[in-house]
Amino acid sequence: MSGRRDRPVILAALLFLLAGPALAAEADGARPQMEYIATHVWREPDADFGGFSGIEVSEDGSQFHVITDRAWIRWGRIERDSAGRIRDLTTLGRAQLQDSQGRPLPPGRLGDSEGLAIATDGTIYVSFEGLNRVARYDDPDGPATPLPIPEEWAELVTNEGFEALAITDDGDVLTLPEYAPDGRSFPIWRYRDGAWAQPFSIPGDPDWQAVGADMGPDGRLYLLERNFRWLLGFRSRVRRMELTETGPQQIETLLTTSTLQYDNLEGIAVWSDDLGIRITMISDDNFLPVQRTEVVEYRIIDPTP
């Protein structure tokens, strides 16, 4: 009788031992999930509205700065419902970016502003893709302070320059070209202590172009990439990684969208609400009536350790 009573215990132990490796493998293979929150179509009547290529969102998700590829910057308030979904974006101010002499930048080669990053002290950094450069703005209504331009940047192909721009909590400005020059990796340029250096690269893919970047509240770099398929439309991808002095580590793909799922997403902002890290992306409508300005938000659900 005692042997029969022991059988369920033995059987349970065997099942646990058999399931153990499978459970461990499942835990090792756990991946973060992307929870879709909402898409807001943003419209305003101003002639300079549209063409948004960069976005920054405040730490509490209530304020925004956006930049267009025609050298305009605007800022304002984000209104949300009780579930945290965007109800409206209200512009509170806007300015045409200036050169270092205080002259308004015209659309085109000199005014092709693409990347936006804001330091913890409020200093604004903008990357330009026509004449490849990065400028600092202490006041969006004031003249630019150009950062030095490395000789290597002259080799970048026109319209394939710096769309992605980010800044770390330590004040390092990071940028990378839209296209991987060798088709395999994106060189990361870092501005630190008054000088640019190219300390490492990010693995790339010839099908994907780097169009936006931001440092998240977790200290990791988030990279927004685009795949343009001509008549089939746009696809988007978001990757994140830890940055070390020797290069990126733990690179993971968080999101890959379907063709025509969203418009031409070019700007990305990463922040945190009470439930986790959020990603806010904005589309560039190229000032075309067949496109639209979309603000798309996701929340990252990381696996429990």
From TrEMBL:
UniProt key word Lyase: no
What the entry lists under Gene3D superfamilies is as follows: YVTN repeat-like/Quinoprotein amine dehydrogenase
SUPFAM superfamilies named among the record's database cross-references: NHL repeat
Instruction: Name the InterPro entries for this protein.
Output: Phytase-like_dom, UCP031900, WD40/YVTN_repeat-like_dom_sf
Q: Pfam families of this UniProt entry?
A: Phytase-like
Domain Phytase-like residues, every copy: 48-287
Name assigned to this protein: Phytase-like domain-containing protein
Natural source organism: Paracoccus jeotgali
